[in-house]
Design brief:
Elements lengths: L9 E3 L2 E6 L2 E6 L5 E4 L2 H18 L25
Antiparallel strand pairs: 1-2, 2-3, 3-4
């Protein structure tokens, strides 16, 4: 059986960062999602991004129907001066 060293969990933004083995686990407090990353810098970056996404889009509802986009082609005449 492989033995893994687990460090002290640290709260950062809306996540918990835990040193595990050769990297860090980032755990989102609200959803429970987690990701293993190789270094502390990447762990803090992921925690910041997840927190911002949750704060900005957590309350929004997904679109049921996508809006239609109408593209219009416009031609123009180019005059060449001699």
């Amino acid at each position: 059986m492989k033995q893994v060293n687990i460090g002290v969990p640290t709260g950062y933004r809306g996540c918990i960062i835990v040193p595990v083995g050769d990297g860090f686990d980032v755990v989102d407090r609200a959803s429970g999602r987690w990701m293993h990353v190789p270094n502390q810098r990447t762990a803090k970056w992921n925690a910041t991004v997840w927190t911002r996404l949750r704060d900005e889009f957590g309350e929004s509802e997904p679109l049921t129907v996508l809006p239609t986009v109408i593209a219009e082609v416009v031609t123009r005449k180019v005059m060449v001066m001699k």
